[in-house]
Design a protein that fits this description.
The structure holds two protein chains of two kinds. Chain A contains 23 helices and 13 strands. By secondary structure, chain A is an alpha/beta fold. In chain A, the strands form three sheets. Chain A has a five-stranded mixed β-sheet. In chain A, helix 10 packs across helix 11, helix 11 crosses helix 14 and helix 19 packs antiparallel against helix 20. In chain B, 33% of the residues lie in helices and 13% in strands. In chain B, strand 15, helix 15 and strand 16 form a beta-alpha-beta unit. Chain B folds into three domains: 75 residues, Roll (Ubiquitin-like (UB roll)), CATH 3.10.20.740; 105 residues, 2-Layer Sandwich (Alpha-Beta Plaits), CATH 3.30.70.20; 359 residues, 3-Layer(aba) Sandwich (Rossmann fold). Chain B is globular. By secondary structure, chain B is α/β, with parallel strands linked by helices. In chain B, helix 8 crosses helix 14. Classes of the chains: A alpha/beta, B alpha/beta. Chains A and B meet through helix 18, helix 19 and helix 20 of A and helix 2 of B.
């Protein structure tokens, strides 16, 4: 693609809309690939060629219905667009023969209820109660993540074009501030404020960084976005760089996400060739260079000062703040670090405007939140809901409720250092404040559902075990406190606890919360404290046998 | 971070109003109003590592408990430093740290000087509420200068800050993560195989017994107990103004006379002074300078080589500078070799039965005494044992000497009487200053009237000065703290590459910040204030000496006229000089 100018985007959109070719799309995110999408894709290609069909076989990202992968969507003239689930290679001939050639939907494979929930939810301007609404994952599963043209045709790069031609950096920041967007990495710091601080900080060279070091067990929101819509992250970073005055940026992505890395690298290459990265973006005098840096697997490198150390080639451990990265970050330069999901929100905000964004979600938490819904529900998957949606809606309506014959016991949000919320509090709306009030947190978006077969003490031991394993070892409260608590929880889960153990857990938890250096250590006791608060009887059962022996 | 001192902030600590320059930490502000916030990982000499969490305080109106060591005081903050909840949390942190620390205080070298022990005592810890989870990690005694005992490490990170940032050596690192995090040579190799230069700054800053000097006090007692042996001792310049700290004297108190007396009480047969060796070093090194400067024989700048940690650093990282190095041995090696040759000859002693012990502010000297064949120039090991100031303090106590009431003694003057030039070797800039006093005389035949060369004094990491000798400009530089040396050497290299005039004619380098007074073997608790006090002690000694120039020392003159001949004579070369070779790191 030749270097694009600001006025070229419209032509691409028109050209793309004008093409009326039939297509078959295969969901090829990590979830689809794990379920065998690659074989399905190859069978579709071979089958179409053998039959001499005039049809495009496309790859898309994760649509969100990970429980029904591999998903195949077929658009053939004269037949309603149809989504098929649980497709294996052996069904490919049937789809090609029946749907494509005979124009008859294969109803036994079709999953209309999923299509209804996931592909048409954005046909409305405003979200509907009880349904998903996609801002961040708007393109995931809909477009080919490696096709810049498809991204542009779906409205991509309109936001950047607007920023570069109509808005000064300060106006961009003001718009983001007005939108009320808060960081989706967990803490919920207002994104616009972060940008303003970085813009105002003194420093010859400033940096933008995309935090793609998603590491919560069971969480894969960022991976899905990086795999399914890499250009939206890159466009978001480009807008951020323009706003804060950076010409250099890094995407820090964990090495365990090879597909995400490959898709981002492909997107960076395409964007460079098209003049959407590199020198004089869209013919303006704004330039930006982006590079990928791989994380080596340490959970704490999602903490921004540890992430900075890691990019600099040092041991990934946090350092005290202040100075915050917005003042002194990478190599001492003012650095703006935004999470993948935060960045993917920006193109829609800057193309549709702050007021539109504010109209979704709640007053203090506008917009949507993506969750990776896993655990004991019928329909685990990637879900995006307006802020303020009750947890119950997510678990029961979107997730389909408990497995047959089981009862939901609790929902864990906020990753390993989030809290466990009991079933009787499921009417709590999903907002930063409401989740924190329950002793949990928004976190980056893991949501794990537990039912009556799960032992709360075991689950707590698992989460704490994760944080102990992932402690960087720098500060004493986290390094030693976590280990000592884990020993107690191991004893409890074997039913060998003592009454003093519970008091010791509370004391160490409090110490870790107060005296740990970074967020990981401060929040690592959350699962312990929230389960002690909501499920005291399970802990008491864990010490009962010891009493009987005495 | 550079502070803009212009603005101030007003805040309250425990209700007491305080006004401090912007950028002042809560910890520093608390000191101003006589509040002591307990700390453990913070060392006043180092930037905060923020590792331990002991110094948390409460900021009114927030639920944050920031660390006082690294959090700047902000306008209007109301800080509570000792409310019950804070104290309770600090106590728990301490209990956690103690649960991972061996209960071996009674057999630990830091018994009585351990900062963790002191904190446990201050907090009144009376029981261990948590199970002990001390890891089973081996001791590393491979260098025979510094002993790593990672079991005792509390992972405060001071040694890493010292090794990486202050000294730019990068021998030590943290390995593994979480509870398994441990301090170790990078790459998990033996310290002896690492780039460690034995400067010992890590051991001087370690709060516990995790990094400790290789203790040779027992070996010293063995020598002293052996009736067959004639034991000779010498004390380095910097020892005399620091050892008093171990006996309650104000820092910088010059205790030379008491040390001579104490050493005799301990059983040494002869007491020499390394300051005499320093005077001889100046005669040789000063003459080397004259040859290079006046006769164009050899590379300029001439770089001093009396610091063994610096020599090791240069051989490992900057071996392209070998030709610039003075070949003159360090003062204690000179006293050692002269003891076993000149002194033995004069006294009719069998050098095989003589042992030389040197008392040094330094751990690297333990390495230097065997660093090459040149250290056996007398036909024997010239210095048999090198002890640090800290080891000597312990020995004085072990010997039952009441140091404070001890009358002053005398040294044996043959290799003991020293000049002011010899004594200032112990502080950064002193070697250069002493060399200028003699070089001036050698070059011009006239005495250097500006005896005290101010540009070489003080604690700036790099100091530069100029003077004119015989109408020629002489540019001199001083660097101390290995972290500062690279800049200076790069200037030398740049001038060389560009074919310019040499950037300097003479450079003095000391591995430890402040020079030997801040040496890795000196009493604990070093700060810049302490460095200045110790240095002042030496500068005062200089001013009070009868002779202040090495070439005026009558015993040095006697040495040359009756034994060595001239500086750089064949005999002087054989006994007093040594050579260097590149030592690439991480190659086994």
């Amino acid at each position: 693609m030749a270097k694009l100018q600001k006025d070229d985007l419209e032509g691409i959109i028109q050209r793309h809309r004008g093409s009326s070719r039939d297509w078959i799309a295969v969901g090829m995110g990590s979830c689809g690939l794990a379920a065998g999408a690659d074989a399905v894709y190859r069978a579709l290609e071979d089958g179409a060629r053998e039959r001499g069909l005039e049809i495009d076989v496309r790859r898309t990202g994760c649509l969100g219905a990970c429980h029904a992968e591999p998903l195949v969507e077929v658009q053939v003239e004269g037949v309603p667009k149809t989504l098929y689930g649980h497709v294996s290679a052996e069904w490919v001939d049937l789809i090609l023969d029946s749907h494509v050639q005979l124009k008859r939907v294969v109803s036994r494979l079709a999953v209309p209820e999923i299509a209804e929930r996931l592909t048409t939810c954005n046909d409305r301007e405003q979200p509907e109660p009880g349904r998903q609404y996609k801002i961040v994952t708007r393109n995931c599963g809909a477009i080919d993540p490696e096709s810049l043209e498809e991204y542009i045709a779906s409205g991509g790069y309109q936001a950047l074009r607007r920023c570069l031609s109509e808005l000064t950096p300060d106006q961009v920041i003001a718009e983001v501030e007005r939108s009320g967007l808060r960081g989706r990495g967990g803490a919920g710091f207002p994104t616009g404020v972060k940008w303003r601080l970085t813009r105002e900080a003194q420093g010859a060279e400033k940096f933008v960084v995309c935090n793609g070091d998603e590491g919560d067990p069971g969480a894969y929101m960022d991976r899905s976005v990086l795999e399914g819509d890499p250009f939206s992250v890159i466009e978001g970073m480009t807008i951020a760089a323009y706003a804060i005055g950076a010409s250099e940026g890094f995407l820090y992505i964990r090495a365990e996400y090879p597909l995400a890395v490959a898709r981002i690298e492909s997107a960076i290459r395409s964007a460079k060739l098209a003049g959407l990265l590199g020198k004089n973006i869209l013919g303006s005098d704004f330039s930006l260079n982006l590079e990928v840096r791989l994380g080596a697997g340490a959970f704490v490198c999602g903490e921004e000062t540890a992430l900075i150390a890691s990019i600099e080639g040092k041991r990934g451990t946090p350092r005290p703040r202040p100075p915050y990265p917005s003042v002194s970050g990478l190599w001492g330069g003012p650095t703006c670090i935004n999470n993948v999901e935060t960045l993917a929100n920006l193109p829609p905000i800057l193309s549709k405007g702050a007021e539109w964004f504010r109209s979704i979600g709640t007053e203090k938490s506008p917009g949507t939140k993506v969750f990776a819904l896993t655990g004991k529900v019928r329909r685990p998957g990637l879900v995006e809901i307006p802020m303020g949606t009750p947890l119950r809606t997510v678990v029961e309506e979107i997730g389909g409720g408990p497995l047959p014959g089981r009862k939901i016991k609790a929902v864990q949000t906020g990753g390993p250092s989030g809290g466990v919320i009991p079933a009787n509090l499921l009417d709590t709306p999903v907002t930063y404040e409401d989740l924190a009030a329950l002793g949990s947190m928004m976190g980056s978006g893991g949501m794990i559902v537990m039912d009556d077969q799960d032992s709360i003490v075991d689950i707590t031991r698992f989460y704490l075990g994760f944080c102990v394993e992932e402690s960087c070892g720098k500060c004493a409260p986290c390094r030693i406190g976590g280990r000592q608590m884990l020993t107690i929880l191991e004893r409890l889960s074997e039913g060998r606890g003592t009454p003093e153990d519970l008091e010791q857990l509370r004391q160490i938890s409090k110490t870790m919360q107060a005296a740990s250096l970074c967020g990981l250590g401060k929040s690592a006791p959350n699962p312990v404290l929230s389960t002690l608060r909501y499920f005291p009887e399970e802990y008491e059962r864990a010490i009962a046998p010891a009493k009987a022996n005495a | 971070m550079a502070r803009t001192a212009a603005r101030t902030v007003r805040a309250k600590l425990n209700g007491i109003e305080v006004v401090v320059p912007e950028g002042t930490t809560i910890l520093e502000a608390a000191e101003k109003v006589h509040l002591k916030i307990p700390t453990l990982c913070k060392h006043p000499d180092l930037p905060p590592t923020a590792a331990c969490g002991i110094c948390i305080v409460r900021v009114k109106g927030t639920n944050q408990m920031p660390r006082a060591c690294c959090t700047p005081l902000e306008e209007g903050m109301e800080i509570q430093t000792h409310e019950p909840e804070i104290v309770e949390i600090r106590r728990k942190v301490l209990e956690l740290i103690l649960s991972k620390h061996p209960n071996e205080c009674l057999t630990c070298g830091r018994n009585g000087t351990c900062e963790l022990q002191r904190l446990a005592s201050d907090f009144g810890i009376r029981q261990q509420s948590l199970p002990s989870i001390v890891p089973d990690l081996p001791k590393d005694e491979s260098t025979r200068t510094i002993v790593l005992e990672p079991r005792k490490c509390i992972t405060c990170g001071r040694c890493l800050t010292v090794c990486q940032e202050l000294q730019n050596v990068w021998a030590l690192s943290f390995l593994e993560r979480g509870i398994d995090t441990r301090m170790a040579p990078a790459g998990d190799i033996l310290l002896a195989d690492s780039p460690c230069i034995s400067c010992g700054q890590c051991s001087a800053h370690c709060p516990t017994g995790a990094i400790f000097e290789y203790d040779e006090t027992e070996r010293a007692w063995e020598l002293l107990r052996d009736p067959e042996l004639h034991c000779v001792v010498q004390i380095a310049p910097a020892v005399r103004v620091a050892i008093g700290e171990a006996f309650g004297y104000p820092p910088g108190t010059n205790l030379t006379g008491k040390l001579y007396a104490a050493l005799r009480y301990m059983g040494f047969d002869t007491v020499f002074d390394t300051n005499f060796g320093a005077d001889v070093t100046i005669m040789e090194e000063g003459t080397e300078f004259v040859k290079r400067f006046q006769d164009n024989q050899g590379e300029l700048p001439l770089i001093t080589s009396c610091c063994p940690a610096w020599v090791d650093f240069m051989e490992k990282y900057h071996s392209d500078m070998i030709d610039h190095f003075s070949t003159t041995k360090s003062p204690h090696e000179i006293v050692g070799v002269l003891t076993k040759t000149y002194y033995c000859e004069r006294k009719g002693l069998d050098p095989a039965k003589v042992r030389v012990v040197s008392i040094m502010p330094c751990t690297a000297k333990k390495y230097e005494i065997q660093r090459s064949d040149d250290m056996f120039a007398s036909g024997y090991q010239d210095v048999d044992l090198s002890l640090t100031t800290r080891e000597l303090a312990r020995m004085i106590k072990q010997a039952g000497i009441d140091f404070s009431s001890l009358p002053e003694g005398e040294c044996d003057p043959m290799l003991g009487l020293y000049t002011g030039a010899g004594t200032i070797f112990g502080t950064s800039g002193g070697v250069l200053e002493a060399a200028l006093r003699t070089a001036h005389k050698l070059l011009t035949g006239e005495e250097f009237d500006a005896l005290e060369f101010q540009p070489a004094r003080g604690l700036d990491g790099v100091k530069e000065g100029k003077l004119t000798i015989l109408g020629r400009e002489v540019r001199v530089g001083v660097a101390h703290g290995m972290g500062h040396v690279e800049d200076v050497l790069d200037r030398v290299r740049a001038a060389k590459e560009n074919g310019d005039e040499p950037a300097y004619h003479m450079i003095e380098v000391m591995a430890c910040p402040g020079g030997c007074i801040g040496g890795g073997g000196q009493p604990y608790g070093i700060t810049d204030a302490l460095r200045l006090q110790r240095a002042k002690g030496l500068y005062t000694d200089d001013r009070e000496r009868e002779f202040r120039r090495s070439h005026e020392n009558p015993y040095v003159q006697a040495l040359y006229s009756s034994f060595l001949g001239n500086p750089l004579s064949e005999k002087a070369h054989r006994l007093l000089h040594n050579s260097y070779k590149p030592k690439p790191t991480y190659r086994r």
